[in-house]
Write a structure and sequence with these properties.
single chain, mainly alpha, Sodium/glucose cotransporter, globular
Length: 495
């Protein structure tokens, strides 16, 4: 390990320790100040998020290793500017989630006492079967997505420090599991806010040094002419129309159905907070995703792609080459922040699915003695569940996929097919029934997985077929089973 690598490693470790410390301290302060139950404190942060915090935690959860490493690396190595304008569809993701589901989920969750997405679905549909199905699907796809994030964090540490992959993975996993397990939702959103700011700063730093290293925009053009000679010709030719449609669905409108972003809508203070978050989150999304992909395309002028094993190594290697060591350490904390924020949110939700949605609902039930024991041991249970899920993910990530980008998108697609119609349909379709929601979740996922491995027509991603099947099944089955309509309790609390 070189001296510069040691310095960068120290900066990154310092950043990780700072996150853990601040998250734990602020989390404990908020817990002491709140009179809400342990469940509400741990899973939704006592519904106390302001506009900035809500925007940053939603944005930080949405962005991932793909936003900072894989996506910009693919732009620099292969796709050039085509990757930039395709990624631009993500700019409205935060606005979409907050605008479509924000108020509705907030109102319903307060009326029903729901603190998780499965809790909302149970209140909306009155279905134990739907809760079990969606909770199991959530945990399965979350673990798949966390594998990609763990791999991304470890790859980043490995490429910077030269440590073995397993050791890099252990360092990353240990930190994120510890602060998530102990701090809960409050620690996550607080650290997400710090990480969101670091991501913005890191993006501007990277753009500046790429331009400087290339000798200005004219130097970038000259370098791209050598390394990516078709960079301008491929603006529309790289992706087939079907692939473009798929990407717009997957990282655009489909994000409304992601439970890890939708759950943020349950934790804000008021409508003004929501509106502020929509504006701030959209601006940050444009800066981070747009800026990183644009700079990634420019970076193609500076590196010979043949010397890199995969696109995941491009950005970390380039940063070490063009930035002063302290600033390189600060920048590399930005993608690490993106990965950490995504993983921590997924860990919290997976823990909630197991502890709250399954164990509390179907094991503890309403037995007074069991409820008292559950409330008393809640902190230990939530800590244990988060720890176990994190450890399982660690071992699964020891044998990583070649390209993190694809595993992350696979998991996103599965989550969208499972939750899009139960969430969106449940919010806006009064005739939506539990049978329709179960059919949409199971049928959408089944079609998605089948098409992912067997259907390659016109470059259309399996998520398009999965979501289409989900919509059709939800509407058809709901219409067939609605009968005399929804019961009065659902109508009063959910509409």
């Amino acid at each position: 390990m070189t001296s510069s690598q040691v310095v960068i490693l120290c900066i990154m470790i310092g950043y990780l320790v700072l996150n853990v410390t601040i998250g734990m301290i602020m989390s404990k302060r908020q817990e002491r100040a709140s009179t809400m139950s342990q469940e509400k404190k741990y899973f939704i942060g006592s519904r106390g998020m302001n506009g900035l915090v809500l925007a940053m935690t939603t944005m930080a959860t949405y962005t991932s290793v793909s936003s900072f490493i894989s996506g910009p690396g693919a732009a620099g190595m292969t796709y050039g500017y085509a990757q930039v304008w395709v990624a631009a569809v993500q700019f409205g993701a935060v606005f979409l989630v907050m605008g479509v589901l924000g108020n509705r989920l907030a109102i319903v969750s307060r009326r029903t006492g729901a603190v998780t997405i499965a809790g909302y679905l149970k209140a909306r549909y009155k279905s134990d079967g739907l809760v079990i199905v969606t909770s199991l699907l959530m945990v399965a796809f979350f673990i798949a997505q966390m594998i990609s994030q763990f791999t991304g964090g470890a790859t980043l540490v490995e490429s910077v420090t030269g440590l073995p992959y397993w050791a890099s993975l252990l360092i990353f996993a240990a930190v994120v599991i510890i602060y998530t397990s102990f701090g809960g939702f409050s620690a996550v959103v607080i650290t997400d806010t710090i990480q969101g700011i670091i991501m913005v700063l890191g993006t501007f730093l990277f753009m500046f040094f790429v331009v400087r290293a290339a000798g200005g925009l004219s130097g970038i053009d000259a370098g791209l002419a050598t390394n990516l000679p078709d960079v301008y010709d491929n603006l529309t030719a790289v992706y087939k129309p079907g692939a473009l449609l798929s990407f717009w669905v997957l990282v655009g409108i489909g994000t409304i159905g992601l439970p890890q972003t939708a759950v943020r809508c349950m934790g804000f203070k008021n409508t003004k907070t929501l509106k502020n978050a929509m504006v701030i989150g959209t601006i940050v999304c444009v800066v981070v995703i747009g800026g990183m992909h644009l700079a990634g395309a420019w970076a193609g002028a500076l590196l010979d792609a043949e010397n890199l094993p995969t696109s995941d190594y491009m950005i970390p290697m380039l940063v070490q080459r063009i930035m002063p060591t302290p600033l390189a350490g600060l920048f590399l904390a930005a993608p690490l922040a993106a990965v950490m924020s995504t993983v921590s949110s997924l860990l919290i939700l997976a823990s909630a699915a197991i502890i709250k949605d399954l164990y509390r609902t179907y094991i503890v039930k309403d037995n007074s003695q069991k409820v008292a024991a559950y409330n008393k041991s809640f902190s230990k249970l939530s800590f244990g569940a988060t720890l176990v899920i994190g450890i399982i993910t660690y071992f699964l990530a020891l044998d990583p996929p070649d390209i993190i980008f694809f595993l992350n998108l696979f998991a996103m697609g599965g989550l969208e097919c499972a939750f899009f119609m139960p969430l969106v349909g449940g919010a806006f379709c009064r005739f939506g029934t539990k049978q329709g929601a179960i059919a949409a979740a199971l049928g959408g996922c089944a079609v998605y997985v089948f098409c992912y491995y067997n259907v390659t027509w016109q470059g259309v991603n399996a998520v398009v077929w999965g979501l289409l099947a989900s919509v059709i099944l939800y509407l058809a089955v709901s219409k067939a089973t609605v009968g005399k309509g929804l019961d009065q309790d659902i109508l009063e609390k959910c509409f």
